[in-house]
Amino acid sequence: MNTLLRIAIQKSGRLQEGSLELLKESGLSISNGKDQLKTQARNFPVEVLFLRDDDIPQYVEDQVADIGIVGENVFAEKKKDNRLIKRLDFSKCRLSMAVPRGENYTGVQWLQGKNIATSYPNIVKGFLAKHNVEAGIHEISGSVEIAPGIGLADAICDIVSTGSTLLSNGLQEVEIVMQSEAVIIASPTLSPEKQKILDKLLFRIEAVKKAKNSKYILLNCPNESIEKITQVIPGMKSPTIIPLTRAGWSSLHSVVDENDFWERIDQLREFGAEGILVVPIEKMIV
Ligand code: ATP
Ligand code: MG
C-alpha cells in the first residue's frame, strides 16, 4: 500500500478555513463535506483528519496523525513530544492577562495571591513562575471572560484578537503572555517515506507563503535611473529590463516585499518611475 501522510486539522472553528486554504493553495485537491471526519487528497499522498483543535496534539503525539495544524497557544499548552515545524501566518492572536477595568493594575506583582481563570493552566503556570508570582489557577474550558464578573476569579488569561470581548465584559488587557499564530506540528518521529511527503508539502507551503509576502512590480523609467531603481527593488537575482520604443526609456520588472512596499514606491517615484503596476504573485520558488 502506498504511504499516506496524515494531517489533522480543525473540524470547524477559527483555524479551519485557513488550514484548508493552505492545503488547497499547495495544490492538494481536497473535498470537505460537512460531516466528514476523514478525506484523502485526490492528487497528493495525504489524508486529512478533521478534529477538535484541543485533541490534535494528542493525536499527533500518538501518531494517529503524523502532523497537525493548531494554534501555537494550543501547542504550547499541550506540548508533549511534538515538534513545531512551521509558523503559518494566519489565525494570529495573543494570549493575554486581563483584569476588571476598575482595578489599579500596577504590574505582574498585582497577581500575587490572586485567582486566575484560564483554559491555559500550563502556560499561565510558566508565566507566573518566570515572574516569581504565586497565584491560584482556576481552569475552565470556555467563556473565561465572565469569570471575574461572577466572582469566580480576580483575573483571566485568554485569547485576544481585537479586545472587543474583553471590553464588553468590563475587562482591561494588562499583560501579553504570548503571541500566537497557526503552526504545523509533527510527531517526534516520522518514517522516511512520510518525511519525504512532508518535505514536499513544506516546499509547496513555503512557495505559497513567499508569494503572499511579495508583489510583482512593473514600471517605466528613464535609462539613467535604472541603476538607482535596481538598488531599491533588486528582485530575486536582478530586475528584468526591456527597452521601450520611446528613446531613453525602459520597462523594468521586479519583485518587491509586501512589507516595505509603500516606502519603496515613494523612492521609485523620486527616481522618475512612471506607470507603476503592482500585481499579486501566486507561487514563488526561489
Ligand atoms: P474546537 O471546537 O476545535 O475545540 P475552539 O472553540 O477551541 O475550537 P477556536 O475558537 O476555533 O477554538 O480557535 C482555534 C484557534 O484559533 C485558537 O486556539 C487560536 O489559536 C486561534 N484564535 C482564537 N481566537 C482567535 C481570533 N479572535 N483571531 C484569530 N485567531 C484566533
Ligand atoms: Mg478547542
Q: Can you walk me through this structure?
A:
Its cofactor is Mg(2+). InterPro entries: ATP-PRT_HisG_long, ATP_PRibTrfase_cat, ATP_PRibTrfase_CS, ATP_PRibTrfase_HisG, HisG_C, N-reg_PII-like_a/b, N-reg_PII/ATP_PRibTrfase_C. This protein has 286 residues and is α/β, with parallel strands linked by helices. The protein folds into three domains: 5-90 and 182-211, Periplasmic binding protein-like II (D-Maltodextrin-Binding Protein, domain 2, 3-Layer(aba) Sandwich), CATH 3.40.190.10; 93-180, Periplasmic binding protein-like II (D-Maltodextrin-Binding Protein, domain 2, 3-Layer(aba) Sandwich); 213-280, Alpha-Beta Plaits (2-Layer Sandwich). Helix content is 26%, strand content 32%. A hairpin with a 5-residue loop joins β2 and β3 (46-51). It is flat, with a radius of gyration of 24 Å. The mean pLDDT is 95. The structure holds adenosine-5'-triphosphate and magnesium ion. Adenosine-5'-triphosphate (ATP) binds at residues 10, 13-15, 52-54, 71, 73-74, 91-93, 159, 161, 180. Magnesium ion binds next to loops.
Residue share in β-strands: 25-35%
First-residue to last-residue Cα separation: 34 Å
The CATH topology of the largest domain is given as D-Maltodextrin-Binding Protein, domain 2
- How many domains make up the 3D coordinates? 3
- From N to C, what is the helix and strand string? EHEEHEHEEEHEEHEEHEHEEHE
Poorly predicted tracts of residues: none
Mean pLDDT: 95
Number of strands: 15
CATH architecture grouping of the largest domain: 3-Layer(aba) Sandwich
The computed structural class is alpha/beta
Q: Fraction of residues in helices?
A: 25-40%
Name the CATH superfamily assignment of the largest domain: Periplasmic binding protein-like II
Please state the overall shape, judged from the principal axes of the Cα atoms.
Answer: flat
Evaluate the radius of gyration. Answer: 24 Å
**Strand arrangement across the biggest beta sheet:** 2-3-1-4-11-5
* Biggest sheet layout: 6 strands, mixed
Q: Count of helical segments?
A: 8
GO biological process, one term: L-histidine biosynthetic process
Keywords: Amino-acid biosynthesis, ATP-binding, Cytoplasm, Glycosyltransferase, Histidine biosynthesis, Magnesium, Metal-binding, Nucleotide-binding, Transferase
EC number: 2.4.2.17
Main location: cytoplasm
